[in-house]
Amino acid sequence: MGRARQRIAGPILLLHVVLFLSLAALVACREPPAGRTAAPAETATGVIRLLDRLDDAAVDPGVPRTAGGEPLHAFDGGPTPQPAAEQRCIARLRARDTAQLRVRARPLDRAASLVVTTGALGRTFGADERPTDFDRVAPAASRAAPPADADRDGWHSLSLRIPSCAGRRALEVAVAASAGEVEVASLELRLESALERATHAPPIPTLRRAAWRLDARRDEESVPSLLLHPGGRARWRVVVPAHGSLTARLAALADPPAAPVAADLLVDGVVAARFSAPAEDHDGEQWHDVAFDLTASAGRTVALELALDPAATGSLLVGAPLLVGDDPRPPERRPPNLVLLSIDTLRADHVGCYGGDPLHTPVLDRLAAEGTRFARFHAASSWTLPSHATLFSSQEPPRHGADRAERALDPARTPLLAPELAAAGFLTAAFTGGGLVDPAFGFAAGFDRYSVRDPGRTAARDPMAPVEAWIAAHRGQPFFLFVHTYVVHDYAPDAASLARWPPPGPATETRELAKLLDRIGAGERDLLPRLQGLYVAALRQADERVAGRLLAALAANGLDDRTIVSVVSDHGEQWLEHGDLTHAHELWSELVRVPWIVRGPGFDRGVVRDEWVGHLDVAPTLLAALGLPRPEPMRGADVRAADHEAAPQLGAVIGNGGDRAFSVTTASWRLIRRFLPDQEGPLVHLFRIDVDPRESSDVAAAHPDVVASLSRWLDGKLAECAAGSVDAPAAPIDDALRQRLEELGYGAE
C-alpha cells in the first residue's frame, strides 16, 4: 500500500512541477523582472519616441549662454536723478518682438507706490510728438510696486516682460508715483533673447515634465522638445528597427542670430553625423527637419548620443526625436491609420447628404457614400473648447472641466485620444486653427507636432502643403493625423472663393462679418442672406481645399484602403431661428446637430445609422476600430458593437456671466433647461423632435410627466459628472492667444 502511494505520488509531483513552471513562464511573459520596465507597445511597431526613453541620468543639459538681446532704449538719470512728475519714453518695438523692461526708480513720497505703465502704439513717433488714443492698438498695462517692495533707501528695481502685440510698431513707457514726484535712476528696454523667449513661453499641459524637457512653440507650431545648452548631451541605448532612421526637428536659440547651432550625433561613441539648425530670423523662428539613416545598425543595440559643443553660439531645441523603422508586424496585423477632420461650426443641414445643397459639399457627400453616415449626431456643447475636449476625452463637459474659456484639459488625469495612440506606436501630428484648440488648453498632449496655422485659411504659404508633406513622409508607419479649420466658423472665404461662389448682395464694408452681425442683430434682416452666403462660400472652400486635398493626399500615397477618415464638427450655428445669431450660449437644435461621417476599415460602406450618437462616442469607436481598448475614464461607447444601445445625449454650455444651459435628447423628446443671469429659476423647454425637429413648438406644459422623467435623468447625469469631475487647471493664456480668441469672438476672462 505504501509503495502504491509512492508510485502514484511520483506522477502527481511531476504534474505539479510542470504546472508550476508553466505558470511561472506565463507570469514572466506578462510581468517584467524586478528593476526592469516592460517594453512599450511602440517598440513592436517600428517607432520609438526617444524623449520617452530619457531620464535625468541620461541628460546633461549643459550651460546656457547669458547674452541678452539688443538694447532698444536706455535712460540714465546719473548720480543725482532729477525729480519729475513722470519719466516717459517711446521706443520702436515690432509686433512680433518680445522685450525686457528694467526700471530703477523711487517715489519722493516714501508712502507712495511706483507705477510703470506700458502701451502699444500703431506708429512710430518723432522726438516732439505725443501719442493720442487713436494711436494705441491695445489697452495700456500698469504695474504698481508698493512701498514695502522698496529697499532701505526707497528704490524699486522692476523687471517687466513685454510680450508680442499685433499691430504694434512702438512701445510707450511711463514711470510715475501714485502720489507726488518720482526719481528715475535708469530705464532700459532690450529685445528678449531667443533662450528667454523659449523659456518664457506659457507652459503647456503635458504628461511628463523635466528641467530639460519643454513643449517648444516656434513658428506657430508646438513640438515636445529636448533643450540642450552648450556642452549638453543626451544618451540612449536602443535596438534599431529594420530600415531605421533617426528623425528630429531642430531649432536654434542663438543671440545674435548670426550662425547656426550644430550638434553631433554619435553612434557607439563615434561621430556619425553633424546636424545643423539655422539661426532664428526676424520673420519668425523656424523648425528644421533632419534625419540620419541607421539601416546599417538594424537589429543591433546601439548607443546613440546627441552632443552640443561647449563653444556653441547658442542653445538647441531637439524636437520630437524619433527612431522610425519598418513595422515588424505582418500586414494583416497592422492597424489602419486614422485621420480626424474637424470643420468648426458646420451645421448638419448644410451638408448635402444631410439634406443640404449637394453643390456645397461634393467631397463630404462622396465620403459618406463610401462609408458610414451618422444621421443623428449630437454635439457635446455649442462652442469649440468643450466640444473638442469631449471629442478627445470621451467625457461630458461637466466631467472633464474644460467648459469655460479659461480652463484647460489635464492630460495627466483625463486620458485623451492622441496619447493613447502615441502609446500604441502611432506617429501623431495636428494641423489646426489654434484658438480654443490651442496647446494651452491641453490638446497638444500626445502629438509629435501641433501646428496652429489654420490649414483652411489662405496665407503666403500654402496652408495644406505641410499636411500633404507629413502624410507622404509617414506613409510607411501607422499614424494619427488631426486636421481642424475655422474657415467656416469665421465666414472667411478668400477672394478666389468669393469670385467662384459669390454670396447675394453687395459687400457691406471692411470687417464684413462683424458689421453684418451688428446690423442683422439691430433688425436689418434683409442682410441675413448675405451672411449665409459667406458661410456657404467658406464651406465650399473647406470642402474642396481641406477635405478634398486631404483625401487626395491619402489616395496619392496609396493609403485609401488602410486609413480611417472621420469627419466631424464641434457645433453648429444659429441664424435667428430662436432669436439669436452665432453660437456659444444656447443648445437649440441648429447648434448641436452636426455631421459625423466615417470611411475606412471597420465601417460599413454606404450605410446610414439613425440612432442618436455624439462626441462622447467618437474616441471609443475609433479606438475599437483600430483594435485598441477604451480607457476606463472614457464614458462613450463603440457604436459599431452588436450590443450597442442608443443612450440619451447630454448637452451642456456654461458661460462666464452666470448663464448656462443643459439638455437631454432621446429618440422622440428633447428637454432644454436654461439658466439666465437675470432669471431666478430655470427656463424649461420640451420639444417632440420626431415630429418637430426644428423645435418650433414648446410642449412642456402639455407633457409634465415627460418633463419630470427627463429632468430626473438630467439631474442624475449632472450629479454623476460632478462626482467624477476633475479640477481643470487654468489655461496659460498669453496676450497673443487672448487676441486670437477675441478675433474668433471668444473673450477669455
What report would you give on this structure?
The chain has 749 residues and is of the alpha+beta class. Helix 4 (384-393) runs parallel beside helix 12 and helix 7 (465-473) packs parallel to helix 10 (528-556). It is 22% helix and 28% strand. The N and C termini lie far apart (89 Å).
Provide a brief overview of the structure:
This protein is of the alpha+beta class and 749 residues long.
Q: What's the structural blueprint in terms of helices and strands?
A:
Layout: H1 2-30, E1 47-49, E2 59-60, E3 71-76, E4 86-92, E5 99-107, E6 114-121, E7 141-145, E8 156-162, E9 170-177, E10 182-191, H2 194-200, E11 213-218, E12 221-228, E13 233-239, E14 245-254, E15 261-267, E16 270-277, E17 288-293, E18 301-308, E19 314-324, E20 337-343, H3 362-369, E21 372-378, H4 384-393, H5 397-400, H6 417-423, E22 427-431, E23 450-451, H7 465-473, E24 479-485, H8 495-500, H9 512-521, H10 528-556, E25 563-568, E26 574-575, E27 581-582, H11 589-592, E28 596-599, E29 607-614, H12 615-625, E30 649-654, E31 660-665, E32 669-675, E33 683-688, H13 704-724, H14 735-743
Parallel strand pairs: 20-24, 20-25, 21-29, 22-23, 22-24
Antiparallel strand pairs: 1-19, 2-13, 3-10, 4-9, 5-8, 5-10, 6-7, 6-9, 11-12, 12-19, 12-23, 13-18, 14-17, 14-19, 15-16, 15-18, 21-28, 25-28, 26-27, 30-31, 31-32, 32-33
User: How many β-strands, per DSSP?
Assistant: 33
CATH architect. name of the largest domain: 3-Layer(aba) Sandwich
Helix content: 10-25%
What Rg, in angstroms, do the CA atoms define?
30 Å
| Beta fraction | 25-35%
Helical run tally? 14
